[in-house]
Amino acid sequence: MENENIEQQDAINLDEELELEPLPEGGEEAPEPQTKTYSEDQFKQVIARAKKAEEELKKLKQPQQLTAKKEPDDIHLTVQELKLAEKKRQFGYEHSLSPDEVDAVFKINQNPTKEDLDNPFVKGGIDALRAKKRVESNTPSPSSKIFKVGGKAWGEMTSEERDANWSKRQQFLKGN
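The structure assignment produced for this chain is given below.
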């Protein structure tokens, strides 16, 4: 049924391609129209060209956006970064983790769960981060004051000079 419709449409298209002579003026009778006969191969070629033209027309009617690859713009990237930051913040709050600890967990798994925190490797990493933070917070800052007696620093003195100046050093360290 479909092939017959296609053949009828092709026959109509073929008739349009024929060059017909205009009707003579006056009351003369029109000569018999001359029709061309096509071989079967020519007919198949015309049908093939018609199908190809229809396919190309369909391609042209399709939106071009589907074929072009669209790059994400800055707004979408910013929104994704904000979503990740909020996800990290909530995860850290729910599990009592510091931002450094949350970052370390998210490096291992982008969608961590409570079970991930029970993993011995993750636990060990978090414990190591916490120990490092405790050590850093308990280390006294180096003093910029240098104790000198007679132009010599404490490290340059001999043990006898240190013993003689011990009370002066104690007062210097107390800030008196």
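Interim note for the steering committee: Helices lie at 2-17, 40-61, 74-94, 99-108, 114-117, 120-138, 159-164, 166-174. The CA atoms of residues 146 and 152 lie 10 Å apart.
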